[in-house]
């Protein structure tokens, strides 16, 4: 009898140890990832873009605020925020404190569903099941307040908008849609070819239909968050889920998008307060260096 229980007890102990490690250490073990993306015209100067996503700000996380503030030392040419900044009604001042000196840099953003609605408790096993399309929303969050502060700082709200920036003499067109996870995206409102030196398309959730639309209009760099990189990854397997229509192999990092251009998916900086664990998937921001394509 003792032997019969040894395997399940061992698995339970291993699972508990992994969860403890993911809560106590890995969710605070921030990483800066760096990639070069060859999308600029020949002869262009290199440009740096800091990609941040999924801050999920709540009170009581000073380590996260301090690390994000330190990213200003990178002095990026552009900051891109792909949403889910909030996870609490008290999150707005925390986000503004974290972004702090980054708000002095050129920036652009799109919202995610957790900017509008507070997260709710969910059975973690649901993430391993097929998506039924049903969404359960928590209480409204003060996204309007945060949006107004970001715009007042000079950042561009790209919710169904396009804007063209000049960075080191390079024309960069940046366009975005609202959160595709809630099917709030309306690409038709911004559709049309880009004529800039480089086009960047933003969507919080990397739904293939949106990525294909951007690529079809000549946007050569597509940027998203939402997946948390899988949040729980296994050696040799990678992400178990992406919580969207994206292939698991593209849950984080830089990859060629089949319809054209490059896709960067951020594994994000935080988690839902109801699932504050990461495993083999530390929180991150990314510095993308745009280089000439030839």
Helix-strand blueprint:
Blueprint: H1 2-24, E1 31-40, E2 47-52, H2 62-70, E3 78-81, H3 92-99, E4 107-109, H4 113-116, H5 143-152, E5 156-157, E6 161-167, E7 170-176, E8 198-202, H6 208-216, E9 221-224, E10 233-234, E11 238-239, E12 253-256, E13 262-265, E14 284-292
Parallel strand pairs: 1-14, 2-3, 3-4, 4-5, 7-8, 8-9, 9-13
Antiparallel strand pairs: 2-14, 6-7, 10-11, 12-13
Helix pairs in contact: 2-3, 3-5
In short:
This protein has helices spanning 2-24, 62-70, 92-99, 113-116, 143-152, 208-216; strands at 31-40, 47-52, 78-81, 107-109, 156-157, 161-167, 170-176, 198-202, 221-224, 233-234, 238-239, 253-256, 262-265, 284-292. It is α/β, with parallel strands linked by helices and 294 residues long. It has one domain (2-292): Purple Acid Phosphatase, chain A, domain 2 (4-Layer Sandwich).
**Number of separate domains:** 1
Strand order of the largest sheet: 1-14-2-3-4-5
CATH architectural arrangement: 4-Layer Sandwich
Query: Which structural class best describes the helix and strand composition?
Result: alpha/beta
Binned strand content: 15-25%
Number of helices: 6
Instruction: Tell me the overall shape.
Output: globular
Annotated CATH topology: Purple Acid Phosphatase, chain A, domain 2
């Amino acid at each position: 009898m003792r032997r019969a229980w040894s395997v399940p007890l061992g698995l339970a102990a291993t699972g508990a140890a992994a969860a403890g490690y993911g809560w106590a250490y890995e969710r605070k073990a921030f990483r800066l990832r760096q990639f070069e993306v060859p999308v600029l015209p020949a002869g262009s100067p290199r440009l740096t873009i800091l990609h941040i996503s999924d801050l999920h700000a709540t009170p009581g996380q000073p380590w996260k605020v301090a690390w994000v503030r330190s990213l200003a030392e990178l002095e990026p040419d552009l900051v891109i925020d792909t949403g889910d900044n909030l996870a609490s009604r008290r999150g707005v001042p925390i986000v503004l404190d974290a972004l702090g000196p980054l708000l002095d840099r050129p920036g652009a953003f799109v919202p995610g569903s957790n900017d509008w609605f507070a997260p709710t408790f969910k059975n973690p096993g649901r993430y391993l099941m097929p998506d039924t399309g049903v969404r359960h929303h928590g209480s409204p969050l003060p996204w309007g307040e945060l949006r107004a502060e970001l715009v007042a700082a000079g950042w561009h709200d790209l919710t169904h908008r396009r804007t063209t920036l000049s960075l080191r003499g390079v024309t960069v067109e940046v366009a975005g849609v609202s959160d595709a996870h809630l099917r709030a995206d309306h690409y038709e409102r911004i559709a049309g070819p880009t004529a800039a030196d480089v086009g960047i398309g933003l969507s919080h959730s990397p739904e293939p239909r949106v990525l294909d639309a951007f690529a079809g209009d000549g946007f050569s760099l597509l940027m998203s968050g939402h997946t948390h990189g899988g949040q729980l990854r296994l050696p040799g397997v990678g992400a178990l889920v992406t919580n969207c229509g994206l292939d698991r192999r593209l849950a984080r990092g830089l990859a060629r998008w089949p319809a054209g251009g490059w896709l960067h998916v951020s594994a994000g900086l935080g988690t839902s307060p109801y699932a504050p664990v990461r495993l083999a998937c530390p929180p991150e921001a990314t510095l993308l260096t745009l280089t000439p394509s030839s």
